[in-house]
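ok, trying the design again with the full structure, not the truncated one.
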């Protein structure tokens, strides 16, 4: 089999040792910085990719929670969890069954008197932690909007049945820390 010149050049480029310099015609591709095509926002992955944990920027303003968006419009109300209920942890704090923890603190609450009291007491600490909420029992989007607007903490209406199973308990209100510690 006879190799043509362009095919030979391609094979040499692909099979060349890693220490060799790129062919001259490709230098302009490797010297240019990457171009950002789309940034959808969200949380930075830098702390998870860096060797050392990144310190939060004290000057940064955290995003304001919103009650507008697809979660409200796509949710079917009422939202209810069949396997959980308001209650107390038998051991407080306790270790969750998810090894290593979720990496981002979150809390699970309902639209009930016990959850309202817990949120009233813990709202400032939840904001400081940057915790997100799962509202696992709520009758309507209006009730969710009222809670989010009053507390200024982001929450999403989600049935937590599979989450309760994964974490190994079935009561709320609870905080699941970034390391997996579960507390009330």
């Amino acid at each position: 089999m006879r190799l043509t010149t362009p095919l030979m050049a391609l094979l040499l480029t692909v099979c060349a040792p890693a220490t060799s310099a790129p062919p001259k015609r490709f230098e302009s591709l490797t010297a240019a910085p990457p171009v950002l095509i789309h940034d959808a926002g969200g949380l930075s992955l830098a702390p998870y990719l860096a060797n050392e944990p990144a310190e939060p920027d004290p000057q940064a303003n955290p995003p304001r929670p919103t009650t507008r968006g697809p979660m409200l419009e796509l949710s079917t109300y009422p939202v209810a969890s069949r396997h959980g209920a308001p209650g107390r942890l038998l051991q407080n704090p306790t270790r969750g069954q998810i090894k290593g923890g979720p990496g981002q603190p979150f809390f699970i609450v309902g639209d009930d008197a016990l959850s309202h009291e817990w949120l009233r007491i813990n709202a400032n600490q939840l904001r400081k932690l940057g915790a997100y909420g799962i509202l696992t029992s709520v009758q309507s989007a209006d009730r969710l909007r009222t809670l989010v607007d009053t507390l200024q903490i982001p929450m999403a209406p989600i049935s937590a049945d599979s989450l309760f199973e994964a974490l190994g308990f079935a009561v709320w209100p609870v905080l699941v820390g970034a390391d997996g510690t579960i507390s009330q």
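Keeping the full-length input from now on. The two ends are 73 Å apart (CA to CA).
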